[in-house]
């Protein structure tokens, strides 16, 4: 079996059940996509090669991820980003992480990292067993995550509460700072200016100078961004 064959078989096994939640299969995106007027949701499977050292048997590790694109936030981020590698709408991710990391950090603070569900496939019959676990984690974790965190207000809350802490929902600090400010502005957060000051200090303290230009571009357009009424 190849990675592509394993991925295709997993997607095929999950298609009927996930379509009931309006998630459509996408081999290109390595999982399932749901599009609404306000969001893009992605339940994605990353496949890693693994070898049992004692036997030399080769197989695969499957890690499911849930991603949420909040269109109102990403529309503004697209205006200020200098990252030319972000080309498709599914490349623009507002929040999300692996299911294992989300489970390991229930309060949202990113204290437990690099966790795994340890879903392994070494033989053909393992595929259906892993598919069952992927469906279960979708229903127990991924879908509720989408329902609970898909609004500007929730992004503002989970990213900007305790702004000095690392968040499992947005592990890339560049995105956390920029999209946190965008969410605060859109949500009419009265602490917006305080948040900007905190984040600008973080950029200096954490040597995040690669985000400086985008921060300047964002501050330039903030006055014309209208918040939610």
What does this structure look like?
The protein contains 8 helices and 6 strands. The protein has 2 domains: 3-148, no CATH class; 152-224, no CATH class. Strands 1, 2, 3, 4, 5 and 6 form a 6-stranded antiparallel β-sheet that branches. The N and C termini lie far apart (53 Å). 45% of the residues lie in helices and 18% in strands. A hairpin with a 6-residue loop joins β3 and β4 (58-70). It is α+β, with helices and mostly antiparallel strands and 229 residues long.
Write a concise keyword list for the protein shown above.
single chain, 229 residues, alpha+beta, 2 domains, six-stranded antiparallel β-sheet, 18% strand, elongated
Order of helices and strands: HEEEEHEHEHHHHH
The separation of the N and C termini measures: 53 Å
Oligomer: single chain
The low-confidence runs, each spanning 5 or more residues with pLDDT under 50, are none
Q: How large is the count of helical segments?
A: 8
Radius of gyration: 19 Å
Shape: elongated
Mean pLDDT: 94
Tally of domains? 2
Helix amount: 40-55%
The amount of beta strand, in percent, is 15-25%
Structural class by secondary-structure content: alpha+beta
Total number of beta strands: 6
Strand count, sense and barrel status of the largest sheet are: 6 strands, antiparallel
């Amino acid at each position: 079996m190849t990675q592509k064959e394993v991925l295709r078989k997993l997607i095929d096994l999950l298609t009927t059940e996930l379509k009931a939640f309006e998630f459509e299969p996408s081999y290109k995106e390595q999982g399932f996509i749901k599009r609404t007027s306000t969001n893009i949701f992605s339940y994605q499977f990353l496949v890693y090669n693994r070898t049992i050292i004692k036997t030399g048997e080769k197989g695969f590790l499957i890690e499911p991820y849930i991603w949420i694109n909040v269109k109102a936030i990403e529309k503004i981020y697209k205006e200020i980003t200098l990252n030319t590698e972000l080309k498709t709408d599914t490349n623009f991710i507002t929040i999300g992480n692996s299911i294992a990391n989300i489970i390991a950090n229930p309060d949202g603070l990113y204290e437990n990292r690099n966790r795994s569900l340890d879903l392994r496939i070494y033989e053909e019959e393992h595929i259906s067993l892993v598919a069952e676990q992927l469906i279960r984690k979708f229903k127990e974790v991924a879908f509720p995550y989408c329902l609970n965190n898909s609004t500007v207000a929730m992004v503002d809350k989970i990213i900007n509460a305790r702004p000095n802490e690392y968040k499992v929902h947005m592990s890339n600090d560049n995105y956390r700072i920029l999209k946190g400010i965008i969410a605060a502005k859109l949500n009419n957060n009265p602490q917006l200016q305080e948040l900007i000051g905190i984040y600008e200090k973080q950029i200096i303290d954490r040597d995040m100078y690669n985000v400086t230009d985008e921060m300047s571009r964002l501050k330039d357009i903030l006055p014309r961004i209208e918040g939610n009424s």
